[in-house]
Design goal:
Length: about 325
């Protein structure tokens, strides 16, 4: 079920100007957030020139033309590893509409000569009122994974990360969407069943997007029993008060296989909260998965857990004192 421990490497190059320090930090952080891809942060080793001959009348640049020239004509760049993402802070103009003051883009996949080459400009990040450059890059890396590896295209506006907008200054609409739409989720499930992508790669895209929008996500694992509904409600209220999004298994709708859904949620989560009361076998299995995947874990229980979990952070609670549980969970989650 865990498909591969080997990351797919994506090489980065620099085209013209770039906020190198911030970009490097963002790539390092992106590597820490997920395990499916290695975003090679040494982009400064490959500095492609951006000649003034590519400047357009509207102030932007024909970035596609500049990159194509470097990769196909300049000897030192012909053998750059693929897949390749070229980063720049220059305005991404449209060579077919050079006089249009609104004809700008934020990315392009170079299908005409190599679909494994993508250009991303950081310029739109300067227009985003509530989001910084690192968040913008996380969003773009997430969209890159979904469009390149999952092969889900940008589409009409429907409240989704992959919404397409002719106005590049509206890029924050993608960030404000907060999630993928149902149609994209259905396409993801088709590709998972067809072995076109792994759960780990999907989780990587979602983890990056969640961090882009500053979403903290907790997946709750507990026995399937109405007796625990009040416990879940208490935990949910406690974490939502602190800005977390909280779900448990029965809130997850898309995968036909429960085990696939659980694996995805564990991989995506910032915290897995497991109720080990009664040493339920399903809960034990999901705690084992959490350990294997290295995700953060918080145990709650009505009785002390088994000795082999004694070192885990555990909140003991009584079913007649859930206010104490809420306070303890808020305190514990704050350090996660």
């Amino acid at each position: 079920m865990i498909h591969s421990c080997q990351r797919k490497t994506i090489t980065f190059a620099q085209l013209g100007p770039l906020e190198t320090s911030t970009v490097e930090q963002a790539l390092f952080r992106a590597n820490e957030l997920q395990t499916a891809f290695y975003f090679k942060p040494e982009f400064y080793n490959y500095r492609l020139p951006l000649d003034e001959m590519y400047r357009l009348a509207n102030g932007g640049y024909d970035l596609c033309g500049a990159v194509k020239h470097s990769l196909l004509r300049l000897k030192e760049f012909r053998k750059l590893p693929r897949p390749l993402i070229v980063l720049t802070s220059a305005l991404f103009g449209d060579a077919d509409d050079p006089n249009n003051p609104e004809a700008f883009y934020f990315s392009s996949q170079e299908d005409d000569y190599n679909p494994k080459v993508t250009i991303i400009t950081t310029q739109p990040s300067e227009e985003l009122a509530a989001f910084n450059l690192q968040q913008y890059l996380f969003m773009m890396l997430s969209a890159h994974i979904l469009s390149t590896y999952v092969n889900i295209s940008y589409h009409e506006q429907r409240g989704c990360l992959l919404d397409y907008d002719d106005e590049w200054r509206n890029d924050d609409n993608c960030l404000n969407s907060g999630a993928l739409c149902d149609e994209c989720e259905v396409e993801i499930q088709k590709r998972l069943r067809g072995k076109q992508i792994t759960i780990e790669e999907i989780a990587a895209a979602i983890r990056l997007f969640n961090r882009a929008i500053r979403k903290k996500y907790c997946f709750v694992v507990m026995p399937f029993s109405a007796d625990f509904d009040c416990v879940y409600k208490a935990v949910q209220e406690a974490l939502e008060e602190k800005g977390w999004e909280v779900k448990r298994s029965d809130d997850v709708a898309f995968s036909r296989l429960i085990t696939e859904s659980v694996l995805r949620e564990i991989l995506v989560s910032d915290l897995v909260l497991a109720d080990f009361s009664g040493c339920n076998q399903n809960v034990a299995y999901e705690v084992g998965l959490t350990h294997a995947l290295g995700s953060d874990l918080l145990l709650i229980a009505q009785n002390p857990p088994p000795f082999n979990l004694a070192n885990e952070q555990t909140v003991l609670y009584r079913i007649d004192d859930l206010e104490h549980l809420k306070i303890a969970v808020q305190r514990a989650a704050g350090s996660a």
